[in-house]
Amino acid sequence: MPPDRARNADVLDLTITQKHHSLTNHLIHTKKRKEKENRPTVTHTTEVIEISSDEDEEPVPPPPRTPKKGAPPTPNERARLLLTALEKKFRALEQEKKQLEAQVNCLRQENAEFRAKGTVHLNNDDVDEHILCEVCSLTMWTPYVLTCGHAFCGSCLESWFDRALRDWASRYPQFPPHVLQAAHIARYGIPPPQYLCPKCRTAVSSKPTQDFTLKGLVGTIAKAKGEAKPGAKETSFRKYFDS
Ligand SMILES: [Zn+2]
Ligand SMILES: [Zn+2]
């Protein structure tokens, strides 16, 4: 190759090499720029943490989420709906309770007024005069009335008649005691014993009878006075009277 042509070839080769190098640099620069553009932007922010005391302020509940139309309620939404329904029911029951209490108070007042109207106030001494037995001075829980109209305890009358019978029988010592009873005395032709009212001394001609009306009144008054009814005792006047 002649020297001129060889020098021209070197210059051409150098030019091509420089252009290639320039193109390569351009491509590298373009690639780096694109990578930089695609890289996610990192924003540095300053977080502020507020520290507050729970005693000073209550935590604010998150606002209720509006359910989407047609979507089934979440467990939290169901719980909130149930709580709302229960609170409504509770308020209704409270209202009903107040109304019932007002009715009860009204009825109590009416009952007190009714009882006050039906209550009879009696003098204790006046009452005792009629419900106490004049033999034993105790309450006549089981009153028996005589033909004269006076009433006494059945047991008191029994004791009263028995004493009279024993006094009468003492006049007839020849007869055994079981004979000297109302059912047998008439057979022996002797005058029968005389039984008298403990109060007015009127002869008692027939067996005393239990006065159920007086018994009821005595029981009611005695219970109102706080007395307890004693055990009932069987009373029979068959020993002293035929009828
Ligand atoms: Zn008595
Ligand atoms: Zn009498």
UniProtKB/TrEMBL annotation:
<dbReference type="InterPro" id="IPR013083">
    <property type="entry name" value="Znf_RING/FYVE/PHD"/>
</dbReference>
<feature type="region of interest" description="Disordered">
    <location>
        <begin position="31"/>
        <end position="76"/>
    </location>
</feature>
<dbReference type="InterPro" id="IPR017907">
    <property type="entry name" value="Znf_RING_CS"/>
</dbReference>
<keyword id="KW-0863">Zinc-finger</keyword>
<keyword id="KW-0862">Zinc</keyword>
<dbReference type="Pfam" id="PF00097">
    <property type="entry name" value="zf-C3HC4"/>
</dbReference>
<dbReference type="GO" id="GO:0008270">
    <property type="term" value="F:zinc ion binding"/>
</dbReference>
<protein>
    <recommendedName>
        <fullName>RING-type domain-containing protein</fullName>
    </recommendedName>
</protein>
<keyword id="KW-0479">Metal-binding</keyword>
<feature type="compositionally biased region" description="Pro residues">
    <location>
        <begin position="60"/>
        <end position="75"/>
    </location>
</feature>
<feature type="domain" description="RING-type">
    <location>
        <begin position="133"/>
        <end position="201"/>
    </location>
</feature>
<feature type="coiled-coil region">
    <location>
        <begin position="76"/>
        <end position="117"/>
    </location>
</feature>
<dbReference type="InterPro" id="IPR001841">
    <property type="entry name" value="Znf_RING"/>
</dbReference>
<keyword id="KW-0175">Coiled coil</keyword>
<dbReference type="InterPro" id="IPR018957">
    <property type="entry name" value="Znf_C3HC4_RING-type"/>
</dbReference>
